[in-house]
Write a structure and sequence with these properties.
- By secondary structure, the chain is an alpha/beta fold.
- About 35% of the residues lie in helices and about 20% in strands.
- It is built from eleven helices and twelve strands.
- It has helices spanning about 1-10, 15-20, 55-75, 110-115, 130-140, 200, 205-215, 235-245, 245-270, 285-300, 320-330; strands at about 20-25, 30-40, 45-50, 85, 95-100, 110, 125, 150-155, 155-165, 165, 275-280, 310-315.
- It has a five-stranded mixed β-sheet, with helices on both faces. A five-stranded mixed β-sheet has the order 10-9-8-11-12, sandwiched between helices. A two-stranded antiparallel ribbon has the order 5-6.
- Strand 8 and strand 9 (about 155-165) form a beta hairpin.
- The longest helix is centred in the C-terminal third of the chain and has 25 residues, at about 245-270.
- The protein starts with a helix and ends in a 7-residue tail after the last helix.
- About 45% of the residues are buried.
- The chain binds zinc ion.
- Zinc ion (ZN) binds near residues 180, 190, 192, 194 and 197.
Amino acid sequence: MSVFFLYFSPLKNDDIMTNTYSIGIDIGGTNTDIGLVCSDGRCIAKKNLSTNKYFDASQYVSDICERIKSLMTECGVTAIDGIGIAAPAGNFYTGCIEGATNLNFKGTVDLAALFHSYIDVPVVVSNDANAAAYGELVYGGAKGMKHFVMFTLGTGVGSGIVVDGKLVHGKTGGAGELGHAILIPEGRLCGCGRKGCLETYTSATGIRRTALELLETTPSYDGPLTKVNPDELTSKMVGDAANHGDSLALKVFELTGYWLGIAMANAVAFSGPEAIFLMGGPVKAGEVLMKPVRESFRKHLCFVYDGSVEVRVSELPDNDAAILGAAALTKAKDQ
Ligand SMILES: [Zn+2]
């Protein structure tokens, strides 16, 4: 067999012969991205459509499946081994989207069943943070790891927890919502209806809130952030200002890193990971966030874990991270 393989491997179409392919679908409130992913971790082609122009889930899935077929035809791929879908409120156990607040499809939508009516391959559904964790495990910096936690910082904060090489889904499929672990009792009001959740402090939205609070309580500050209309202030603007040495923006990221470091130290006490990964827009601010994160993490980590946990930034490529994460879910189908 090895002679056979060695003889044929240098020939053209090597990719088609030795790799398998899967589809990763990232469903966002505005856009849906669909990618054809090679087993070596490359997203080789992608298409998208507008999620919010659909009100009929069946038509939406039908149009996605058309795009999947044209992606395969255009790339000369004749078979895929599964479809992974990262969706808001996506449930791994049921294959359904259940009461997503930012989609037009209300109630419970049986995504897996809808896809099966068009394409006969395994379909795996989960939320975007779980997909991100699986993407890191299958294609990114967590390859070969058995225990790690992924925090995704975006509009909210999501997390995915891998223990013994498996994503933790919990009783209902809702495990790993560390963004809604309460960091500060009676703190900021959260979209979930409670107060003080981690995501109200360390998401992109939380960073914006911190900046607005500091602007209000620091009348002596007259830096660049005073020139931005408060309604238009974004965490990226704060990150850019911090990287230009702006004192107030740096203070915002020091606070954000401090809070996130506490949440990470708490996560370690829960599952004893070998690494914690961070991904998402605010992480792109770089060391202005990561330095205070590491300092706070070290300060708050219980001594029994000293030196045993790495703090890492996701190694998935920015542009394809969500698609790769979704595609990686297909590798979870045997769990
Ligand atoms: Zn909350």
